[in-house]
Amino acid sequence: MHGSTPAAHAGSTTIRISQFTFDPAEQTVSVGDTVTWVNADILPHTTAADSGAWSSGELAVGAKYVFVARDTGRYAYRCAAHPSMHGMLVVRPADPLQRPPR
Ligand SMILES: [Cu+2]
């Protein structure tokens, strides 16, 4: 019978790196979601949270980096090789009832 099992739904999202930009530049996900950066540009890039929450190291052309969001927060990140490349990952609670006031 459907609906009797608590949903442990984890989503996934992809952020594309191309033309020296993260696309989308700001992305909101829920705790437990998987975030994948794909380097679709013509030269290597990285994705690294200013807080140190993640750091991909150099991503070759076509390479991917996968990060599982564990903690809520607003994570500014950038490419270590190109500081002008920056993005924002917003991680919100998985349970809508636990959303913090804003
Ligand atoms: Cu870069």
SSE topology sketch:
Elements: E1 12-18, E2 21-23, E3 26-30, E4 34-39, E5 48-49, E6 64-68, E7 73-78, E8 86-92
Parallel strand pairs: 1-4, 3-8
Antiparallel strand pairs: 1-2, 4-6, 5-7, 7-8
Bound molecules: copper (II) ion.
Q: Care to describe what's here?
A:
The chain has 102 residues and is mainly beta. The protein has strands at residues 12-18, 21-23, 26-30, 34-39, 48-49, 64-68, 73-78, 86-92. It has one domain (12-95): Cupredoxins -  blue copper proteins (Immunoglobulin-like). Strands 2-1-4-6 form a four-stranded mixed β-sheet, with no helix packed on it. A four-stranded mixed β-sheet has the order 3-8-7-5, with no helix packed on it. The chain is built from no helices and eight strands. The protein is globular, with a radius of gyration of 15 Å. It is 0% helix and 40% strand. A hairpin with a 7-residue loop joins strand 7 and strand 8. Copper (II) ion (CU) is lined by residues 45, 79, 81-82, 85.
